[in-house]
Amino acid sequence: MTTQTLSFYNRVDDALRDGSLRTALDRATSRFIGNRAAALAALAGPDALRDQARAIRAYALAHLDELLNQLSDNVEAHGGRVCWAEDGAAARRYITDLARERGVKSIVKSKSMASEEIHLNTALEQAGIEVIETDLGEYIIQLANETPSHIIAPAIHKTREQVSALFTQHLGEPPTDDVPAMTRAARRALRQRFLRADMGISGVNFGVADSGAVTVVENEGNARLATTVPRIHVAIMGIERIVRSFEDLGVMLQVLARSATGQKLSVYTSIISGPARPNESDGPEEFHLVLLDNGRSQILGGKYAETLMCIRCGACLNICPVYQAIGGHAYGGVYSGPIGAVLTPLLQPDLPEQHTLPFASSLCGACQEACPVRIAIPDLLLRLRADAVQQGKAPPIERLAMEGYRVLMTNPALYRASGKLGGIASRMFGRKRRFRQMPPPLHLWTRKRDFPAFPAETFTERWEKRRKSDER
Amino acid sequence: MTTSQGRRVTLFVTCIVDSLYPQIGEATVAILERLGITVHVPRGLTCCGQMAFNVGFRDDAYAIAGRTIEVLHGDDDVVLPSGSCAAMIRHLYPELFADSPHAAVAGYLARRTYELTEYLVDVLGVTQVGAHFDGAIAYHHSCHGLRFLGIKDQPRKLLEYVAGAKIVSLAGHDECCGFGGLFAIKQAAISETMLDRKLANIAASGADLVVMGDASCMTQIAGGLSRAGSPVKARHIAEVLANRV
């Protein structure tokens, strides 16, 4: 929780000093990147598939109200109940009230970023209900009392050594560096919880409008258990996570798995359409779908609408050199990495310093290149930066520097004179070839980088000389 | 080479080349003139405005870029020895000038603006410019040229014809060096971490020369190499192609 209170820059400095974090991130992101590249290369036409995926997302956003109504009607026709939650508070209230009314004492959860977004666990725990995360990564960070640092790999920041220490502390397991042994230990501990739980809560990868189904993909089987064993299943879905049909779903699942983990398809794809029917022996007695808006409808139709195409695959995080350096927690919001730097200011506008996140990017564009639906993340970051400046959030020194820059660059005479200053400086500093130190704020440049000496003459001066000698 | 005879291009060397690396501007002129092209450098050209645009100061960027599109009026192809500044004009001017009286002019400028290597290879169809260098060359792909202009094969094609040069592979050749304009100062610690990785990859490549298409990345990479006391030199591709290493 300390990560929430420190400033962004402090968090970055801490992250960069954390050797274990770097080890963990390097191991995991390089594996993800390699797997993703191989999985896409194995497709006959990866670009065409991505174009198709983008078109499917664009269609869904353009017809969002219609598709959501269709989904809702179909879910209810299957015997499920639908909650339209305008914000996190409404979603939390619906779920905690439901749990209380049904006498729920124990809840198992499968991975859901939407539930993280609305801090559902805290609300349920405050209501006296036991909540256990059952995705291995989520379970690890729950034991560590932390938040996810990656959209699909919540414990990516932990090394296996750190996980073993947690299991020793909380589960009494002997220390080990054997990952399968740790997985077995978690499975033993979690199995009891599944059997005891009265309610299972899951996220939703995609709602399928025309059939009233929700789809949950995962690799561990925990979501399958959490959505079928307890007597009540609650699925939380961001309103934008919808597709028209199973045909569209097929395309999305392919790009999702390949972009996220490099798999052709996730190990488990659960397609859930309502509670168990009267003649069925398996499945929950009740199914509830919470459609979470929480700021999304405000984004729709505006200059950030493209953000809602995101399918939460995490590819932009893995490829991002900034994320690779600082990890997810430094971002301070629920979502991290490039897409988090866009989502957090839009979805969590009250978070202190959220306006600095769009600046945590060199605008290299690797995110857009990796995005399965080609979201123009750098353009979105640039727009958010412009908004921050318009809201007066730029540091005064930067405002001053930009004033100076504008005056200089809109006055060619002044610009030429400043070039002469460079020449004077070069004569003053003699044959000096580079600067090893500069005054603040440029000292931040010369901490680890030299700065080149100014040339005796600028290009403009040399060119004008040549022009004059040509005329002669 | 004959196809290029009689062509005229407007050269925009960019503010960073003008004030810090005039030799890159002269190298660019030399390459174009060797191909029989008349090079025109308009008076009063300063900067594309990207630095302000990238940190969100769109009014300042608009003022600077508005002047720049005026100075670059006409029908010449505009060539820049920078993928980043060319991407600003081609990719971002349309957004900056959308809904403004300059929208059409900015759009026309965007359509006739080229980064140097794409102009040579794609427009002129030239890959052999008579360059030679004895040593190992690694190429660093600058992000904006690579991802916003799609400049990927053009520099490689040109470098393949540099007599005497051995092109060595550079791990992470398409990873950002960490410059990013004011990012290098605003997020200095992250920028330094990204640079460290780039420097390690350069050292491992065995190159004598790390070559790139942007003076901004070159400032970052050369600054890091110089501070680390590395024997590897960072050069702009124009310097290599003009035999001015």
Structural account:
- The complex is a heterodimer of chains A (472) and B (245).
- In chain A, the strands form three sheets. A six-stranded parallel sheet of chain A has the order 1-10-7-4-2-3, sandwiched between helices.
- Chain A is elongated, with a radius of gyration of 26 Å.
- With 472 residues, chain A is of the alpha/beta class.
- Chain A has two domains: 2-298, NagB/RpiA/CoA transferase-like (Rossmann fold, 3-Layer(aba) Sandwich), CATH 3.40.50.10420; 399-471, no CATH class.
- The relative contact order of chain A is 0.12.
- Chain A is 52% helix and 11% strand.
- In chain A, helix 10 packs across helix 11 (179-196).
- In chain B, the strands form two sheets. Chain B has a four-stranded parallel sheet, sandwiched between helices.
- In chain B, strand 7 (209-212), helix 12 (215-227) and strand 8 form a beta-alpha-beta unit.
- With 245 residues, chain B is an alpha/beta fold.
- Chain B is 50% helix and 15% strand.
- Chain B is globular, with a radius of gyration of 17 Å.
- Chain B has 13 helices and eight strands.
- Chain B has two domains: 2-122, Rossmann fold (3-Layer(aba) Sandwich), CATH 3.40.50; 127-241, Rossmann fold.
- Chain B has helices spanning 15-20, 22-34, 50-54, 58-71, 83-96, 103-111, 116-123, 143-148, 154-160, 183-186, 188-205, 215-227, 237-241; strands at residues 8-11, 38-40, 77-80, 113-115, 132-139, 163-168, 209-212, 233-236.
- The interface between A and B is large, with 62 and 68 residues.
Provide the descriptors you would attach to this structure in a database record:
heterodimer, A: 472 residues, alpha/beta, Rossmann fold, six-stranded parallel beta sheet, four-stranded mixed beta sheet, 23 helices, 11% strand, B: 245 residues, 2 domains, four-stranded parallel beta sheet, 50% helix, 15% strand
